[in-house]
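Protein in question reproduced for absentees:

***
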Amino acid sequence: MAVKLLISFGLAVLGLALFTIWRATQQEALAEAAFPPEGEMLDIDGVAIHAVVMGKGPDVVLIHGSSGNTRDMTFALAPILAEHYRVIVFDRPGLGYSASFNPDGETIIEQADVLQRAAALLGADKPIVAGQSYGGSVSLAWAITRPDNISALVLMAPAAIPWETPLDGFNQLASTSAGSSLALPFITSYVPDWYVTQALDTVFAPQKAPDGYAEHFGPQLTVRRASMHANAKQRANLLHEITQLQPRYGEISVPTEIVHGTADDTVGLDWHSERLIEQIPGAELIALQGIGHMPQVVAAPEVAEAIDRAARRAGLR
């Protein structure tokens, strides 16, 4: 009797697992149908990179943060900039529609390298590079490791100074092969869209996600299994990478503007940007009163002004 119960239990678990994988695949297909690529796919030595290009003028590259995609930048900031610049917005490797290429998680230096080569393929040999949060880390790596391929640097709430808080439990789990295989399919399959959309307000706090942002951004893209796994691996490695990169901040020689909200509880202004400004020669910091972690959305005009200042300092305008 016990053997029969055990067999029945095993078959039930197997059935649930197979159904969950099938449902996850269906949910991912629905997300991609609802939020297809906005731009073009580039081939960078076999790595697919998704790029959105708009406007005319000096080149500006926009790099999104953790769990993001091009749509985060194209909601508000890119259309403003496109009035005076040629704007190139990339999906970072493993996120959105850009391919992952490092099974251990793409480092910020690797990401800077492949995105710089993608920009060059589009004719942007020396763009202004602007990144938010994790994208700010990639932008710092670009400025340090690709100094001949950048004209100015703009950082929005950048993760820049080694921190002491541990990686959250979810990303610890999602960064592992076991977590990716066992846990992530359940999240993709069963977490409702309303919950994913509601979680955006936590990212925007103390602001809320603007009307229409969720419908444009496509938060369902972020809960695809491969995206969550790639994002978690990158975040798990980031502290070590920033610790290694920080001693080289003094090498940055291009005009640098930093924009950071005073109410940012995700990447603190005082810990990161107020220390970073002391380490990059000539860097300027704009503190946005009462703004949280998403200035590229809720304070897009102010960020655009910072990019204008960087362009003028670089002699581009």
